[in-house]
Amino acid sequence: MNALLARDLKLALRAGGGFGLGLAFFLIVTVLVPLGVGPQSALLGTIAPGILWLGALLACLLSLDRLLALDWEDGTLDLLATAPLPLEAAVSIKALAHWITTGLPLVLAAPVLGILLNLPAPGYFWMVVSLALGTPALSVIGTFGAALTVGLKRGGLLLSLLVLPLYVPTLIFGAEVARRGAAGMDIATPALMLAGITAATIALLPFASAAVLRVNLR
Amino acid sequence: MGYVAPMTLSASDLAISRGGVRVLENLNLTLAPGQALILRGPNGIGKTTLLRTLSGLQPPLAGTIAGADDRIAYAGHSDGIKPTLTVTENLNFWARVFGTSSIQVALDSFRLADLADRPAGALSAGQKRRLGLSRLLLTGRAIWILDEPTVSLDTSAIAMFADAVRAHLGQGGSAMIATHIDLGLDAEVMELGPFKAVPPPLDDFDGAFA
Question: Transmembrane segments in this chain: where (chain A) (predicted)?
Answer without folding.
Answer: 12-37, 43-64, 96-117, 123-150, 157-175, 187-213
